[in-house]
């Protein structure tokens, strides 16, 4: 598997009484690697980066890098809607030994395309680390457009993008506008398989928290051109993929891990809350159907 290709887990951050559960984080990482995952993203959206302070952010990335110990790439979430803060987080991730940084489109302040270009350019020029852009308009309001991605792909250490736009038209434009070596990763589990067959190189996945082996098998099959096997695994996982977003992520993923005995406390930090009773019941039923409970 090439670097930054494959099934990469957007890892949840375990807390106990609101504080980082270090042993819980180590155990989750080992579970991922033992089940064949191809990479780990700490401090992404699923890792509740928005409610981690700087010291916690660094602590999670440091511990992830130390635990992974080079077995798979670590792509550290370091995005912010302040360019100077994003640079500071990216510098810290590099010092921690992360293999790459995942930098989200700035949220809330709604920069135009030139502002987006200059934001990411400034980060890339300030920190010599591979950078993967992260487009998630459902959370940031704005898109980084394919033409802007193509401009950014000319910067040597901007090596790829996580596309969570759920739009195969936009994904196709990014792939056709950018150099062949530029890595496009799906940011949505349900679109991972079609994205790969369109030319993507994998997925940064939420459902992989719960079933890393299944997601790894699906992506490996798709990257290997085995459409039958990829489609079979896609439809096996599809109901669980849907449930990961039945209430706001990462609540359902954390609850599923608690139900499986892999997390002591599934409560996300406020203002996030856990899933409602109906979602928990649906998660239990689906985990039973999959033979996991």
From TrEMBL:
Task: Indicate whether Amino-acid biosynthesis appears among the record's keywords.
Answer: yes
Xref: SMART domains? DHDPS
Q: Which residues are noted in the entry as pyruvate-binding?
A: 46, 204
- Coarse class of the protein's main subcellular location: cytoplasm
Give residue numbers for the site L-lysine inhibitor binding: 50, 81, 85
Alphabetized Pfam families for the sequence: DHDPS (PF00701)
What is the name of the protein in this document? 4-hydroxy-tetrahydrodipicolinate synthase
């Amino acid at each position: 598997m090439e670097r930054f290709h494959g099934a990469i887990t957007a890892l949840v951050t375990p807390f106990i009484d609101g504080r980082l559960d270090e042993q819980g984080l180590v155990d989750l990482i080992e579970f991922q690697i033992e089940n064949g995952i191809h990479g780990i993203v700490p401090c992404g959206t699923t890792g509740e980066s928005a409610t981690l302070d700087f010291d916690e952010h660094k602590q999670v990335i440091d511990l992830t890098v130390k635990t992974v110990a080079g077995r798979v790439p670590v792509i550290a979430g370091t995005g912010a809607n302040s360019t100077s803060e994003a640079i500071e987080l990216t510098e810290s991730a590099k010092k921690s030994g992360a293999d790459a940084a995942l930098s989200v489109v700035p949220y809330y302040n709604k920069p135009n395309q030139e502002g987006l270009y200059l934001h990411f350019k400034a980060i890339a020029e300030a920190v010599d680390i591979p950078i993967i852009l992260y487009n998630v308009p459902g959370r940031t309001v704005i898109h980084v457009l394919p033409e802007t991605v193509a401009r950014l792909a000319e910067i040597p250490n901007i090596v790829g993008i996580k596309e969570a736009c759920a739009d195969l038209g936009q994904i196709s434009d990014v792939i056709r506008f950018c150099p062949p070596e530029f890595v496009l990763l799906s940011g949505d589990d349900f679109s991972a398989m079609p994205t790969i067959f369109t030319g993507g190189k994998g997925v940064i996945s939420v459902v992989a928290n719960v079933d890393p082996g299944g997601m790894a098998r699906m992506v490996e099959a798709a990257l290997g051109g085995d459409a039958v096997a990829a489609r079979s695994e896609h439809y096996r996982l599809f109901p669980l993929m849907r449930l990961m977003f039945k209430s706001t992520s990462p609540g359902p993923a954390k609850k599923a891990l608690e139900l499986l005995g892999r997390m002591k406390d599934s409560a996300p930090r406020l203002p996030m809350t856990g899933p409602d009773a109906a979602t928990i019941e649906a998660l239990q039923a689906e985990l039973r159907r999959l033979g996991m409970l």
